[in-house]
Amino acid sequence: MSGVCVPGVMYMPPEGSGPSGLTPEAEARLRVSETMAAAVRDAGEPRAVPGALCAACVRLLPVTGASVSISGGKGVRVTWCASDRVAARMAELQYTVGDGPCQSALDEGAPVLAADLTEGPASRRWPIFAHEAVGLGVRAVFSLPLGPSGATVGTLDLYCDRVGGLAVLDLRTALCVRDAVTVALMNLQTGDHARNGAAGGDTEERVASWVAASEADHTEVYQAVGMLMVQLDVDPEQALDRLRGRAYADGRTVSQLARDVLSRRLSFWSEAYGGDAGR
User: Fold this and answer.
1) Domain of life here (predicted)?
2) I need a surface site. Which of 5, 28, 37, 193 has the fewest CB within 10 A?
């Protein structure tokens, strides 16, 4: 029987532990910590870190892709990173329709697991999102809220191209991954940064650059919402809802429609007087 000997004592690994002497949950947390730290270290420049973290999420879990969205308040969300094109489109889809597991996880501050978008409860809970996601090849989505002490600042969204939920150990690993991504977002000094005595300001600037790069993708949306507020005489939330509705009706993303509004190719002036928004 294996064990670690010290004078007069035989240490026995806890029941259910692996060869390392750690419980499965502790092993999962260690693997996540090592993988995510390596992803940050190997990324090189700060701008590459978010993408490296998303790719690491996929390596750690039995999922097809992953994305991280940051919430800036009701109706305001930016994609921080995505592991692939479908993950990015799914994040944009949820932003466009204003619904889906990501939004529910933000609202509830708890994990939302949709194991089958093709039928059943998930397809009925988010019918529009589920229909569009399935069209992208997505069959299951698992959204985990990010943030310390119950404060939700975003979500980690995992998707699979097949129907099915996460096994218990995989869910534990996913929660560990969620914690690691939260640390990255919250700018906590761990690992090499702490050992090397990195200045807090330096790390804050790094995180700020990640967020700024992500927000740049949605700057057009905020500007377009401002124009619609004037054209339609509505508040920001109503303006965003109108933009989302038109984008979905046209089969486009909110970002694409916003660029048309900013370039004056699309105006909502006529809609304010009972007509249809025109080009």
Assistant:
1) Bacteria
2) 5
- List, for residues 89-103, the tens digit of each pLDDT value: 999 888 888 889 998
So what's the pLDDT on residue 185?
75
> Is the predicted pLDDT of residue 136 greater than 90, yes or no?
yes
Kindly state the tokens that stand for 256: 């694409």
For 219-272, CATH gives 1.10.10
DSSP 163-223: -----HHHHHHHHHHHHHHHHHHHT---HHHHHTT--HHHHHHHHHHHHHHHHHTTHHHHH
Q: Give the Å distances, CA to CA, from 112 to 43, 100, 146, 189.
A: 30, 10, 12, 29
CATH number of 24-213: 3.30.450.40
User: How confident is residue 18, by pLDDT bands cut at 50, 70 and 90?
Assistant: low
Q: Domain locations in the chain?
A: 24-213, 219-272
Q: What's the whole-model pTM score? A: 0.69
